[in-house]
Design goal:
Rossmann fold, alpha/beta, seven-stranded parallel β-sheet, binds nicotinamide-adenine-dinucleotide, 12 strands, globular
C-alpha cells in the first residue's frame, strides 16, 4: 500500500511513520511544510529507508496538492497536518483557519479529483482518513464521556477549526462519496512532542530548575493517550474501519493537570534526584481563557468493532516519556529554533 501522510514531521505523524516503517510494508509519502512544530530530526532514523519519501509542501497550496497526487498515486491519505496548539490559536487564529480549514479543503479537493480517475476497484479501496480531536465536543462536567454521537461544541479557535475540518470531510463523503474515515482522539503524550505542550514543557522546566506553571488551580482533567497506542489505533481504523464512520480513541487515563505535573515531579525525584523536591517548583498562574474543564473518551466502539485497546497505562507511558526526554536533550535543543523559549502563550491582555 502507498500511503500519503500529511503532517508526518510533527509529533503524532512522525510516531506513525516510525511505527509503520518498522512494523508494516507500506510505502509512505510524507507531505509536510515544516512549520515550527515539524522537524525532520524526528525521522532521522528512517529518512534513508527505501519505503519513505519526503515532500516539502503546504497543504493549502492547491496546485501542489493536485500535482502530488498525480506523481505519487496513493492508495490512502492519513491527514494529520494541522496547527495544533490551543494557546497559539488564542494568540493568532489565522494560521489555524488557513491550515486546518482551507488546507483540509484543498487536500479533499485534490484527493477527490485524483480518486475520480481511479478504476472502480481502486476507488472502492481508497481511504481518506482525517485525524481530529476530542476538543470538538467541548467540555464535560464531572460526569460522562464523549461518544461518537456527542454534539459538536468547540470552545477555542483551535477546536472550532478542527470541527470545521471534520464537517468538510464528512460532507465530501456524503456529497461526493469519497471514502472517508474520521478519528477523534484525546490528549497524546510521548517521545518527540514539541516542548510547548504540557508534559515536555514541565519535564524540561523541572530539569532547568524553572517554575512549573499550572493554569488556574490545575483541576482541568484530560484523558491521556500514549502516542504509540494512538498510531496503532489509527492504522487499525485505516485498514479495518467502516467507511463514513467516526471512531473515538482514548487512553482511559483521566488525570487533572496538577496530578500530571505532580506525577512528573515524583518521577524526576526518582530518576534525577536533587536536594529540593521538584514539586516545590509548581506555580499556579492565570487560567487559559475559555479553558475546557474536562475531556474524557468512551473508546468502546473502536474496541468492540476493531479490537483495539491501549497497551500503556498512564504510569508506564509517563515513565517512558520522562526517561526519553532526559535521554534526548539534544533533540529538544535542536527542534526549538530559538523563537519559542518556553514562555506563556494564549493570554488575552486585559483578562
Ligand atoms: N497532540 C495531541 O494531543 C492531539 C490530540 C488530538 C488530535 N490531534 C490532531 O493530530 C494531528 C497531529 O497532531 P500533532 O500533535 O502531531 O501536531 P504537531 O503540531 O506536532 O504537528 C503538525 C505537523 O503538521 C505540519 N503542518 C502544519 N501546517 C501545515 C501545512 N499547512 N501544510 C503541511 N504541513 C503542515 C507541521 O509542520 C507539523 O509537522 C493534528 O491534526 C491534531 O489536530 C492531536
Amino acid at each position: 500500500m502507498k500511503l500519503m501522510i500529511t503532517g508526518g514531521a510533527g509529533f503524532i505523524g512522525s510516531a506513525l511513520i516510525r511505527t509503520l516503517i518498522s512494523e508494516t510494508n507500506v510505502y509512505i509519502v510524507n507531505v509536510d511544510k515544516l512549520s515550527y512544530a515539524g522537524n525532520l530530526e524526528s525521522l532521522a532514523g528512517i529518512s534513508g529507508d527505501a519505503s519513505y519519501v519526503f515532500e516539502h509542501a503546504d497543504i493549502c497550496d492547491a496546485d501542489k496538492m493536485q500535482a502530488l497526487f498525480k506523481t505519487h498515486r496513493p492508495d490512502a491519505v492519513m491527514h494529520l497536518a494541522a496547527e495544533s496548539h490551543v494557546d497559539r490559536s488564542i494568540d493568532g487564529p489565522d494560521d489555524f483557519i488557513q491550515t486546518n480549514i482551507v488546507g483540509t479543503y484543498s487536500l479533499l479537493q485534490a484527493s477527490r479529483t485524483y480518486w475520480e480517475t481511479l478504476s472502480s476497484k481502486k476507488k472502492a479501496a481508497f481511504r481518506f482518513h482525517h485525524i481530529s480531536t476530542d476538543e470538538v465536543f467541548g467540555s464535560l462536567g464531572a460526569e460522562g464521556l464523549f461518544t461518537e454521537t456527542s454534539p459538536y461544541q468547540p470552545n477555542s479557535p483551535y477546536s472550532a477549526s478542527k470541527s470545521a475540518s471534520d464537517h468538510l470531510v464528512r460532507a465530501w463523503h456524503h456529497t461526493y462519496a469519497l471514502p472517508v474515515l474520521i478519528t477523534n482522539c484525546s490528549n497524546n503524550y510521548g517521545p518527540y512532542q514539541f516542548p510547548e505542550k504540557l508534559i515536555p514543557l514541565m519535564i524540561l522546566n523541572a530539569l532547568a530548575g524553572k517554575p512549573l506553571p499550572v493554569y488556574g488551580k490545575g483541576q482541568h482533567v484530560r484523558d491521556w493517550l500514549y502516542v504509540e497506542d494512538h498510531v496503532r489505533a489509527l492504522y487499525r481504523v485505516l485498514t479495518k474501519g467502516r467507511v463514513g464512520e467516526t471512531y473515538n480513541i482514548g487512553g482511559g487515563n483521566e488525570m487533572s493537570n496538577l496530578g500530571v505535573v505532580e506525577t512528573i515531579c515524583s518521577l524526576m525525584d526518582e530518576l534525577l534526584p536533587r536536594p529540593e523536591k521538584y514539586n516545590n517548583l509548581i506555580r499556579f498562574v492565570d487560567d487559559r481563557p475559555g479553558h475546557d474543564l474536562r475531556y474524557a473518551i468512551d473508546a468502546a466502539k473502536i474496541s468492540r468493532e476493531l479490537g483495539w485497546q491501549p497497551r500503556e497505562s498512564f504510569a508506564t507511558g509517563l515513565r517512558k516519556t520522562v526517561q526519553w526526554y532526559l535521554n534526548h536533550l539534544r533533540w529538544c535543543e535542536r527542534v526549538s529554533d530559538g523563537r519559542y523559549q518556553g514562555e506563556r502563550l494564549g493570554v488575552i491582555s486585559g483578562t
